[in-house]
Every structure is written in structure tokens, then in C-alpha cells.
Design a protein that fits this description.
about 290 residues; alpha/beta; 2-enoyl-CoA Hydratase, Chain A, domain 1; 3-stranded mixed β-sheet; about 40% helix; ClpP/crotonase-like_dom_sf; Enoyl-CoA hydratase; catalytic activity; Enoyl-CoA_hydra_C; ECH/Chromodomain_protein
Length: about 290
């Protein structure tokens, strides 16, 4: 599928620095509420990120004081269910937020959510297939779907119980109540709570640490082993896949470089590319249509 020119995005910013891609939802006047155009541009941006060898890690944030106040309920391009010409799922058969979630889930690169302010609805659900979430002090968080007469989307019913456990997931999703960063931290939804001004720098610092020190093939394999093995029913499944991966990477240029750099006490210079050097068994999973 041909990707869009990233300079033509209207509602997100695409900024690549030091092999870290920062994607910013850029609708601050609308509290970064999500429309179909925002989703389309994020989908396209993540496809770019997956193909670009210069991208080693991705950070997602929001412009201004909000991460995202959820779906735009007033826009013709949002979820204005009271409009005469409104069509659920944009007239299609699949939730577009779920398509974005699947792309992030299968991405061979780590994704960090820099939740710089309030995040509700899809402002939370879009982050669930991301690997790390850092949230601002004082942010309001919530999943108010049932209070609007709808159900959680963006594959949240798959991801949320896996991230915070079934009891917390059901409580949050059925009550639709707001909760704060400290509760999110206790539940494991976020890994850190920081002053708002420190959220994006912290996320970018973590992304740079990965980009500068970790081999991209090893990162891709590790990320997908951990996510996909959540569905395994026995540790033997992990043993089989880990054994395949170890056989595939042992003796590779990046393994040799990683060990040599460690012995020589210098930063590694990894040269292998995802497009050329992922093992033949990758990807080993198949989604049901």
C-alpha cells in the first residue's frame, strides 16, 4: 500500500530526530479530539514508521494541554451520531480505530505514549497496543463509552484486560467513570506519572535509549515475542519461538557487533535492516479475517 507524503498531514505532525519518530495529534483548539482524518493519518504514519529503517522507536503525544479528549462528537468527520447523514464505521464493516490498533500491535518497533494531559475514550484505547505509557500529573482519564450508549473500540476489549487485568478493565469500562494518574499507575496502565512538561522529554529519552543501544532485529523479535505470546497456553510455545529466534540471530553481524562493543566498552554500531535481516519465520502469527 502506497503511503501518503508525511508533509501533507493536516491533523498530526510527523517529526523524525535521532531515529526517534514523534507523532503529535495536532488539534489543540479541539482538545486533540479524534476524527477519521486523525485516524487515517495515524494509520499512514505508522505504516511509514514500519517501513522506514531510520525509525527505531515511536513516541505519540498531543499538542497543547490535552493528549486527546476522545472522539470528536460534533464533527461530520467524527462520531456525530445525531446527524442525519451519520454512518456507523464510516459506512464500512470495521472500526477504523481497530485497524490502527492492529497496525501498532504488529509494528516491529516499540511505541511509547507520552500522555501529556487528559486522555479519555479513544485517547486511552489508541494507546493500549503501545508498549509504554507515561502520563502527566493531574490528567483526567476515563473510558466513558457506556455513558454514551456505545461500547469500547479500537480493540480495547482485547487489550485492556491484558494490560490492567479483567476486574479493573470491566470496572473502568462499564462504569465509564473518570480516574486519575495514581490509580492508572497502581493498575499498570501507565508506568510513570510526571509533571506535564516532563512527559514528552521522558518518553523521547526512553525512545533514544532504545534507538542508540539496541539492535533493531532483536528489538522487533523481542517486542513481538512478548505481545504474541500473551496468547500462548503453555510456556513451551515461548521456548519454541525463542529457540528459533536464538538460532536465527546467533552469529549474525549484529550479535557479533553487540558482543564486541560490550567487550570494547563502546556504543554498538548495528547495521542489520528489518527489510533484509528478519528471520524467515517472522512473522509467525496470522490474524483471523
Amino acid at each position: 500500500m502506497t503511503c501518503q507524503d508525511t508533509s501533507t498531514y493536516q491533523d498530526i505532525r510527523y517529526e523524525l530526530t535521532d531515529r526517534v519518530l514523534t507523532l503529535t495529534i495536532n488539534r489543540p483548539e479541539q482538545r486533540n479530539t479524534v476524527t477519521y482524518r486523525v485516524l487515517d493519518e495515524l494509520i499512514d504514519a505508522f505504516r511509514h514508521a514500519g517501513e522506514d529503517e531510520e525509525v527505531r522507536a515511536v513516541v505519540v503525544t498531543g499538542a497543547g494541554r490535552y493528549f486527546s479528549a476522545g472522539t470528536d462528537l460534533a464533527s461530520r468527520d467524527g462520531y456525530n451520531a445525531t446527524a442525519d447523514d451519520f454512518k456507523p464505521l464510516r459506512g464500512g464493516t470495521r472500526d477504523v480505530g481497530g485497524i490502527l490498533a492492529e497496525i501498532i500491535y504488529d509494528l516491529p518497533k516499540p511505541v511509547i505514549a507520552a500522555m501529556n494531559g487528559t486522555a479519555v475514550g479513544i485517547g486511552i484505547t489508541m494507546t493500549l497496543p503501545m508498549d509504554v505509557r507515561i502520563v502527566a500529573e493531574g490528567a483526567k482519564l476515563g473510558l466513558p463509552f457506556t455513558r454514551r450508549g456505545i461500547v469500547p473500540e479500537s480493540c480495547a476489549n482485547f487489550f485492556l484486560p491484558r494490560v490492567v487485568g479483567i476486574a479493573t478493565a470491566v470496572e473502568w469500562a462499564t462504569s465509564g467513570r473518570l480516574f486519575g494518574p495514581d490509580e492508572a499507575l497502581r493498575a499498570g496502565l501507565v508506568s510513570r506519572v510526571l509533571p506535564a512538561a516532563e512527559v514528552l522529554p521522558a518518553a523521547q529519552a526512553l525512545a533514544r535509549e532504545i534507538a542508540e543501544n539496541a539492535a533493531p532485529v532483536a528489538v522487533a523479535l523481542t517486542r513481538q515475542l512478548m505481545w504474541k505470546l500473551l496468547e500462548a497456553d503453555h510456556p513451551r510455545a515461548a521456548n519454541r519461538l525463542e529457540s528459533l529466534a536464538l538460532r536465527a540471530v546467533t552469529g549474525s553481524p549484529d550479535t557479533t557487533e553487540g558482543i564486541t562493543a560490550f567487550r570494547e566498552k563502546r556504543p554498538p554500531r548495528f547495521t542489520q535492516r528489518l527489510a533484509d535481516d528478519l528471520p524467515d519465520f517472522y512473522p509467525w502469527w496470522n490474524a483471523d479475517e
